[in-house]
Design a protein that fits this description.
This is MucBP domain-containing protein. By secondary structure, the protein is mainly beta. It is built from four helices and 20 strands.
Length: 300
């Protein structure tokens, strides 16, 4: 099994302890843990949804990013990745034990950043390591000086609710299928880019959607009126249906993302400790897409 579905299914084995209950619908994404949110006909804890935290750099800083060989299996190489002042990244703040004391550490998911940013440190013949998008191998920041370079911010309005920003072509059938997506993906990145990606079958497994985008653009403006999220860019995005709205300026083209509010639920196996999963259905420029949003938590 390739990477996207594997990460989702393997994560289901780690979720435990929540039975689904009746509840009231959530009007919008909550950033509060331990909250009950309505997902279709189910109510799930926000603890089990993709409740990322977001951090913005207060000055230009560097972090370590992991890259792996693109065409053959081999070891990871670490490179210093420069994040300009104002860059937003997904991650979360936790603690680690140093001697008898607990000290803060910030975990940053570097692989969710834009290709525009990641390419600045990418060695020839290498690709960002997608497993750094998981809790297994995130970028860890522990020094006090580096921690002061990040401040907590709200989830950017351009990010789809409870999504890591990766949306895959297809409707309900594709969302619940165990088959790995291998066609087209749209990615909205925490640092404010929208990318159209075509799966590259020539690279090693799991890296097909991590190559150079077919088209990409910096998001210069966002307008959100549920269920529509409108992303504006200065340039057209070939391969995506955008609308020209201005003849000049930085917000000349509009890409409309519609949340269909028809979440798809794959039932897990509580007896084997496997949680069920949720995907949200979207339309991007009128074309159906789906994105993984989390787990139902129903396992033993």
């Amino acid at each position: 099994m390739a990477l996207h579905k594997w990460l989702k299914i393997s994560g289901a084995f780690l979720i435990a302890g929540l039975a689904l209950m009746a509840g009231t619908p959530a009007a919008a994404q909550t950033e509060r843990p331990n909250s009950l949110v309505k997902v279709g006909h189910y109510t799930a804890s926000s603890n089990f949804l993709n409740l990322s935290q977001y951090y913005q750099t207060t000055r230009t800083t560097t972090v370590k990013a992991a890259y792996v060989p693109t065409h053959k299996f081999g070891g990871r190489v670490m490179r210093s990745l420069t994040l300009p002042k104002g860059t937003v990244a997904a991650g979360y703040l936790t603690t680690h034990k140093v001697g008898s004391r607990l000290q803060p550490q910030l975990l940053i998911y570097t692989s969710r950043l834009s290709h525009h940013r990641l390419a600045t440190a990418q060695p020839a013949g290498y690709t960002i390591d997608p497993t750094s998008d998981t809790d297994n191998t995130p970028t860890v920041i522990t020094t006090a000086r580096k921690l002061r370079a990040f401040k907590r911010v709200h989830c950017p309005r351009y990010m789809p609710a409870y999504s890591h920003g990766d949306l895959y072509a297809g409707g309900a059938a594709a969302a619940i299928s165990p088959i790995e997506p291998t066609s087209t993906s749209v990615r909205v990145t925490p640092d404010g880019y929208v990318e159209l990606l075509t799966y590259d079958h020539t690279v090693r497994g799991g890296l097909g959607f991590y190559q150079a985008p077919t088209s990409q653009g910096k998001i210069t403006k966002t307008v959100f009126h549920d269920p529509y999220r409108q992303l504006y860019t200065q340039h057209a995005l070939p391969g995506l249906r955008t609308t020209a709205v201005h003849a000049s300026g930085t917000a000349r083209y509009r890409l409309t993302i519609k949340n269909r509010h028809q979440p798809q639920h794959i039932i897990g196996d509580p007896l084997r400790g496997i949680a069920g999963t949720f995907d949200s259905l979207y339309q991007i420029g009128g074309v159906p897409y789906y994105t993984f949003i989390g787990y139902d938590g129903a396992s033993n």
